[in-house]
Amino acid sequence: LVASLEQVEQTYIMVKPDGVQRGLVGEIISRFERKGFKLTGLKLFQCPKELAEEHYKDLKTKSFYPTLIDYITSGPVVCMVWEGVGVVASARKLIGSTNPLQAEPGTIRGDLAVQTGRNVVHGSDSPENGKRETALWFKEGELYEWTPAQAPWLM
Ligand code: RTP
């Protein structure tokens, strides 16, 4: 069964500075790869303050906002775009609850994190935000379309 193009979503996934510093980049990428999603963008990147503020603009009024901006800009992040049917919601499931203590074992945060303020990874929360965040973090020439050698039934 081949998915129609309209069903294919994209999501913006980011290994946060703590994930990079703890050597969890490969582990996190593996989980999305093994699930069967397609990587269409990938880079190591030092996020400027302005971009962090734009990315998290909906949280501007929250008390933890300044700490969050400091955290995200505290070291390089790994920016990724993953594509596939249902990838937005599926990635959120793979990632687990925002508070790692509430995240189920088997999820990235459930297995690898303890604190909300150091929860190792970000994932877009809707297909619209998947598009918005992809456009925010990647330039057009940095994204690639390619055909997987195996499992074409997943695409
Ligand atoms: P993300 O955007 O990183 O995937 O996280 P999320 O949707 O699960 O959570 P959201 O409510 O959008 O919060 C974004 C990030 O802000 C930090 N946070 N800190 N100290 C706190 O109470 C608190 N609450 C949220 C987390 O790093 C969270 O992922």
UniProtKB/TrEMBL annotation:
The keyword Oxidoreductase does not apply. Residues 8-145 form the Nucleoside diphosphate kinase-like domain. It comes from the Eukaryota. Its cofactor is Mg(2+). ATP binds at K16, F64, R92, T98, R109, N119. GO terms for biological process: CTP biosynthetic process; GTP biosynthetic process; response to hydrogen peroxide; UTP biosynthetic process. The active site is at H122 (pros-phosphohistidine intermediate). It catalyses: a ribonucleoside 5'-diphosphate + ATP = a ribonucleoside 5'-triphosphate + ADP; a 2'-deoxyribonucleoside 5'-diphosphate + ATP = a 2'-deoxyribonucleoside 5'-triphosphate + ADP. Keywords: ATP-binding, Kinase, Nucleotide-binding, Transferase. It is an enzyme of class 2 (transferase). One of its GO terms (molecular function) is ATP binding. Its EC number is 2.7.4.6. Belongs to the NDK family. This is Nucleoside diphosphate kinase. It comes from Gossypium stocksii. The lineage of its organism: Eukaryota, Viridiplantae, Streptophyta, Embryophyta, Tracheophyta.
